[in-house]
Specification:
This protein is of the alpha/beta class. The chain folds into two domains: 313 residues, ABC transporter transmembrane region fold (Up-down Bundle); 171 residues, Rossmann fold (3-Layer(aba) Sandwich). It is built from 19 helices and ten strands. Strands 6-7-8-3-9-10 form a six-stranded mixed sheet, sandwiched between helices. Strands 2-1-4-5 form a four-stranded antiparallel sheet, with helices on one face. A hairpin with a 2-residue loop joins strand 4 and strand 5. Helix 18 crosses helix 19. The protein is elongated.
Amino acid sequence: MASQSDQPAAKAGPSRKLGSLHMVWRFASRYPLQLVIAAVALCIAALATLAIPYQFKAMIDSGFIAGGGDVAPHFRLFYVIVGVLALATALRFYFVSWLGERTVADIRRAVQRNLLRLAPGFFEENRPSEIASRMTADTAIIEQVVGTTVSVALRNMVMGIGGIAYLFSLSPKLTAGILLGIPVIILPIVLLGRRLQKVSRASQDRVADIGATTAEQMGAMKIVQAFGQEEREAARFASAVEANFVTAKRRIRLRAIITATVIGLLFGAITTLLWYGAEGVAQGTITGGTIAAFVLTGGLVAGAFGALTEVYGDLLRAAGAAERLSELLNAGTTIAAPAHPRPFPDPPTGALEFRGVEFRYPTRPDAPALHDFSLTIRPRETVAIVGPSGAGKSTLFQLAERFYDPQAGQVLLDEVPLVDADPADIRARIAMVPQETVIFAASARDNLRYGNWDASDDELWDAARAANAEEFLRKLPQGLDTFMGEGGARLSGGQRQRVAIARALLRRAPLLLLDEATSALDAESERLVQDALETLMHDRTTVVIAHRLATVRAADRIIVMDEGRIVEEGRHDDLVAADGLYARLARLQFQDSLAPA
C-alpha cells in the first residue's frame, strides 16, 4: 500500500531554489541567543571594517595634508578599531560555527528518527547507501553554509550597504554612478543562478552515486574478488567518478562565468568612477582624504559584492542539499499507529491469523506475493511453512510484524487486526530469528540484549547457554564486552546464528518466528540448538520457515505454499504419502529422511 509519501525521494519535483533553505532556518532558529550574539558580532565586525577608511580619511585630511599635524591619536584609534574588529570577528566565528555544527547535528538526528519510523518499502525504493550519502555529504554542505557561507554573506551585505551609505556621504555623485551599475551586476546572477541551481542538485546526486557504489563494493569485496570482477568494479566506480566530474565541471564553469562577469563589471565601474574622482582632486573639488577613503571603501564594497556571487553559488548548492534532506525528513510512512490504537488482550497467547490476504510488494505491483491467503495458527501451536523459493513464506513474517499492510484481507494477532494496533505493541509480542543474521558493530553483550535491553548478565548467559553460544562467547578475549566487528566479523556464520537465537530467547515473546533459524549451523550445533528451540517453543506459538526436516517433523502442522497460496496442509507422514508438492520437495531436499516417523 504505497502512498505518495513513500515514492522514491530521488524523483522529487523541480528544485525550489533558495526556498529549500527554509528547512535549515527552522532548525537554526531554535537557538535565538546564539543567533543574536552572532548577528551583533557580525555587524560590529563589519562596521569596524568600514571605520578603517573613515579614520584613514580623518588622518590624511587633519594630519598629513593639514600641515603635519599630530597623527598619534589617529593611530591609537586605529588600534582600538583593530581590537574591536578582532574580538567581534572571534565571537562571530565561534557562534556561527557553533550554530553550523548544532544545526547539522539536529538535522541528522531528525532525519534519522524519521527514517527509523518508515516502512521497509521505502528502503526498497530508495537505496540505503544513497540515503547514507545524504546524511554525510549533504549535511557537510549545510554545515559549511550555516557555519561559514551565511556569515560571509551577511557580513558582506552589511559591509556593502554600510559602505554605500558612507560613499554617499563622501560623494553622492560618484556613488550614484556605482548604484546605476548594480542592476547590470545582479542580472547575470539571476539568469545564470537558475541554471547553477539545477546543476548543483545534479552534482549532489552524482556524489551520492559515488558513495552508494563505494559502500556496495566494500560490502561485497569477497564476492568481487572471488569472481575476479575487480576490473569491472573499478570501471564502474570510475564511471561514477567521471559522471560526477562532468557535472562538477558544468557547475564550476557556471560559477566561474558568474564570478568573472560580476567582478569585471563591478571593478570596471569603480575604476571608471575613481578616474573621475581623481580629476576632482586635481581640480580641488574633492580632498585627498576623501578620495583615499572613497578608494578604500569602494574596494571593500566591490569585494563584498564580488564575494556575494560565490556565496550565491554556495547557497544554491546548500539549497539542493537541503531539498534532498527535506525529502527524507518529510517522507511519510504507510505503517503508523492509529489515533486510538486498540490494546491487545492480557495475558498474550500468540494466536496469529490471516484472513483472505492479498499482498503485492510496492516494488513488484504486478506480482502477487500472497493471493486469497487464509491461515489460522492457534495459541502455542508450532506451524512449519515450506514451499519453493518465491512461494510467499517470508512474506507471512513481513505481514505478521506489520512491516507492510496487505492490499486486501486482514492479519490478526490475538484476535486484534494489526491495522488497528500500534506497530510497537505488535512487535513487542514477537521474537524473530531472520534468515540473514544481523550482528551490530558493538559488543557481544549489546548484541545479545538487543532482544531485551534490560536483561542482566545472568539472563544473557542463560540465553547463550540455551542457544549453544555460551562456550564460544566465554572464550572471547573480553567475554561479553568483546567487540564483534563490522557485521560480526569476529564470529563464524554458525556463531552469528546462535547469537541471533539467544537474542530471540531473551525477547520472551508469545509468538516466535523462525526463518531458517538453523540454516547456518553444523550438524552438532544444529542438534543442540534444536533441543533449545524445542524447549523454547513449548510455551509459545511458533511459525517456522525451514528446509531442515527435523524442524518440519516436530511441527504440529506443515503448511505447503506455492505461488502465494496454501496448496497442502498436514503432518509430515501424511504429506509424504499424498505424493504432492511436499513429497517432491522432500525427495529433492530430504532424500535420506523420507521414512515415516
